[in-house]
């Protein structure tokens, strides 16, 4: 049986003293997904961890921009500790 874990839109970081979003530490794995044709599509996907609370985050951004437009929390995911 495959492992299952939750995926949800990222909310405010529970470790922040006031309502603030997670502060991602992007040094994890990344993938660049491209589709050529009409229309052309491209996204950058990265897995990271919040600096403050440690929850795993999945970011999705337009390809080549380097700025994530969407973050998802993966609260049950196990990421390698550095």
Overview of the structural elements:
- The protein has 82 residues and is mainly β.
- The chain is built from no helices and six strands.
- Strands 1, 2, 3, 4, 5 and 6 form a six-stranded antiparallel β-sheet that branches.
Mean pLDDT: 75
Helix and strand string, N-terminal first? EEEEEE
Q: Per the principal axes of the C-alpha atoms, what is the gross shape?
A: globular
Determine the structural class based on helices, strands and strand pairing: mainly beta
Which properties best describe this structure?
82 residues; globular; 6-stranded antiparallel β-sheet; 39% strand; mainly beta; single chain
Give the topology.
Layout lengths: L7 E2 L14 E2 L4 E6 L5 E10 L5 E7 L7 E5 L8
Antiparallel strand pairs: 1-6, 2-4, 3-4, 4-5, 5-6
What does this entry show, briefly?
The chain is an all-beta fold and 82 residues long.
